[in-house]
Amino acid sequence: MIKKPMDETKKGFMQNIGDLSFKKIDESNFEFGIKVLEKFLNSGGIAHGGFIATIADTGMGNAAHICAGNKRCVTINLDIKFVSAGKLNDQLLGKVKVLKTTKTLVFIYCEILDSSRKVIASASGVWKKLKA
């Protein structure tokens, strides 16, 4: 379903996460996916909150980049609510909706779903479009 790996997964910090895939659905909707591996678990045996925050930020940031005409964008605000737990081997699905773009900002909402398609986290944020 989600086939194209994001370029950001091969650079910097994202090398630690790995196989995050991304798909454009239409002009304002995107999806990303990743499997919960053992290295992404916290000491309680569920997906670490930092892992969930990282994939939300990356998936939403990639959507901002595309909606900004492929201009580099940086996160200026990210709000995450953890609703449930991601478990080992869950295939997580992020559903991203670009709510609004202005001359300098992109406003985005995201839900992350587990393998049974229950929401485990929601996030909203604002990305700043950088000048070329």
Q: Characterize the overall form.
A: globular
Task: Output the radius of gyration.
Answer: 14 Å
- Portion in helices: 10-25%
> Hey, roughly how much beta strand do the residues contain?
35-45%
Low-confidence blocks of residues: 1-6
- Main beta-sheet annotation: 7 strands, antiparallel
Q: Give the C-level CATH assignment.
A: Alpha Beta
Averaging pLDDT over every residue, what do you get?
91
The succession of helices and strands, N to C, reads: EEEHEEEE
CATH superfamily: Hotdog Thioesterase
Structural class: mainly beta
Strand order of the largest sheet: 1-2-3-5-6-7-4
Write the layout of secondary structure elements.
Elements: E1 4-5, E2 21-24, E3 29-35, H1 49-67, E4 73-82, E5 91-101, E6 105-113, E7 119-129
Antiparallel strand pairs: 1-2, 2-3, 3-5, 4-7, 5-6, 6-7
